[in-house]
């Protein structure tokens, strides 16, 4: 069992990451259902694609944990946020993705500091993917008339 050589804080990062990824799955799945109910088929389809991406991240985390000899444990699943319009859903996503990016950045930096090259590379790969995803949400918000600071114009409410 490899847990003796893995820093406990690294295991904590893996568990927190798994919780956030499963929370993202739940959030995007809920948002797909809301978008469907609002007649926003393209948005619903996009949220469903996000579900698949986040499930893939969760699967990678589970495999990593099993490979390290620990049982996967997502201990704090967050409730999915609901809203009255697409923009407010995306603002929730923006906040969740920012938290995920921050966690992967912190985990990458910690792993580097302790000389854990393997886990640093693992977290860095997830970090890059989540940064890209956060950028896509920002671009989607911008296309709906939401400024980078969260300010909105009248187009944003549909």
From TrEMBL:
<dbReference type="Pfam" id="PF00210">
    <property type="entry name" value="Ferritin"/>
</dbReference>
<comment type="similarity">
    <text>Belongs to the bacterioferritin family.</text>
</comment>
<protein>
    <recommendedName>
        <fullName>Bacterioferritin</fullName>
        <ecNumber>1.16.3.1</ecNumber>
    </recommendedName>
</protein>
<dbReference type="InterPro" id="IPR008331">
    <property type="entry name" value="Ferritin_DPS_dom"/>
</dbReference>
<dbReference type="InterPro" id="IPR009078">
    <property type="entry name" value="Ferritin-like_SF"/>
</dbReference>
<keyword id="KW-0409">Iron storage</keyword>
<comment type="function">
    <text>Iron-storage protein, whose ferroxidase center binds Fe(2+), oxidizes it using dioxygen to Fe(3+), and participates in the subsequent Fe(3+) oxide mineral core formation within the central cavity of the BFR protein shell.</text>
</comment>
<keyword id="KW-0479">Metal-binding</keyword>
<dbReference type="InterPro" id="IPR012347">
    <property type="entry name" value="Ferritin-like"/>
</dbReference>
<keyword id="KW-0349">Heme</keyword>
<keyword id="KW-0408">Iron</keyword>
<dbReference type="InterPro" id="IPR002024">
    <property type="entry name" value="Bacterioferritin"/>
</dbReference>
<feature type="domain" description="Ferritin-like diiron">
    <location>
        <begin position="4"/>
        <end position="148"/>
    </location>
</feature>
<dbReference type="InterPro" id="IPR009040">
    <property type="entry name" value="Ferritin-like_diiron"/>
</dbReference>
């Amino acid at each position: 069992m490899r847990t003796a050589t893995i820093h406990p804080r690294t295991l904590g990062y893996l568990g927190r990451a798994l919780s956030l990824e499963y929370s993202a799955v739940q959030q995007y799945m809920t948002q797909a259902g809301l978008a469907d109910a609002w007649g926003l088929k393209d948005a619903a389809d996009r949220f469903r694609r996000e579900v698949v991406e986040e499930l893939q991240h969760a699967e990678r985390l589970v495999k990593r944990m099993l490979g390290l000899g620990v049982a996967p444990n997502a201990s704090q699943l967050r409730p999915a946020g609901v809203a009255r319009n697409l923009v407010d859903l995306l603002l929730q996503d923006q906040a969740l993705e920012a938290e995920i990016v921050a966690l992967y950045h912190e985990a990458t930096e910690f792993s580097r500091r302790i000389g854990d090259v393997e886990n640093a590379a693992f977290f860095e790969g997830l970090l890059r993917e989540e940064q890209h995803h956060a950028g896509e949400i920002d671009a989607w918000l911008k296309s709906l008339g939401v400024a980078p600071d969260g300010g909105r114009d009248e187009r944003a409410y549909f």
